[in-house]
Structure formats: C-alpha cells, structure tokens
Write a structure and sequence with these properties.
71% helix, 197 residues, elongated, mainly alpha, Tetracycline Repressor, domain 2
Length: 197
Amino acid sequence: MVRPRSGDKDQALVDAAISLFLEKGVKGTTVQDIAKKAGLAVGTVYTYFKDKGEIVRRVAFAFAERHHAFAKEILESRKKPLSKLNAYLLGFYDMWQPFGENQKGPMELAEAVFRWAPETPEIAEREFLNTLEAILKEAKQEGARIDRPEEEARWIAISTASFFPLAGTPFKRPMGESYSREDLKGLLTWLGRKLSG
C-alpha cells in the first residue's frame, strides 16, 4: 500500500474511515482497520484523533466541507441558473446516496453522527437552503418567474427532501417507493418548465 505524504495523512484517515464506516459500520470498524486502510501506523491515527468518536466527528465535518466546496463550485460556474439548479441537486444526490442507504454501515454512521456531531445535519440543511436561494436569486435577476427566492428555495427543499433521506431515520415516502436519480431529473425538468415558462 502506498504511504501518504505527511500533509495527506488527515485526508487519508478521513477517506479510510468513511469507506470503512459505510462498509462495516462504526462498531465493526477499529482504529487499526482505519490505520491499515490509510496506509499508516495505528499510533499516527492517535496523533490526529483521540478516539473513534472524534474520527466520526471529523468524517461528518469532512462531508460538510465537501458539500460546501461543491456548492461554491456550482454557484461560481458560468452555467445558467436553471442548469446550476439541476447540477447542484443531481450532484448532491450523487454525493448523498451512500449516507442514505438503509444498510448497517450507513445506519450506524448516521447514529454516530447524531451522537458525536449533532450540529452537522443543521449545517448541511443551511448550506442546502442557502445554495438554492442563491441560485433562485440569480434566476430572478435573469427574468425567471420567481417572486420570493427565500420562500421558493424552501419549497424546492421540501419537494426534493425525499431524495435525501438519512439512513435509519424514519422517513415515509409519499408514493411508498424509493426515488431514483431519474425521478429527480424528472422533477427538475418539470420545475424548470414552471420557472422559465
């Protein structure tokens, strides 16, 4: 296994932890497993993290950082606002999928995040709403049929929420089935017609 350079160790540990937590669950993953997957000595893990709870916390914040970087990239792109909306929601769908699966690993990770990083779901929600609002404000400036971007961002968030469940959380789907990426694309096509028509 290739050993990461010193500056890459934190990222290697986080990436290893995410992969193992999703695959084996938090309880089934040891610090030794994380070290081995990252190509580092166990002692090195403890120079970055005092325990598994701190690793879970860092994993939760790593996801928030990735979401923020992705949202920033979309907002700064030269795409038209409705293309930004599609790219953001579909990209977020792809990013979120592993965390929404109702399998042991994702369910344990969700439970651990609520225990050791309870503020991170709210951070994600705020980022999501702020990004939608920024896109809709831009669309309004370009003539889209948007009256109140803040309110309409909330409605889009509510209408797309069923595509982003967190593993293990009680979540009834209105139509009693799982929604796919194709369903989200269909919703976005319909929404695009409504906003630009």
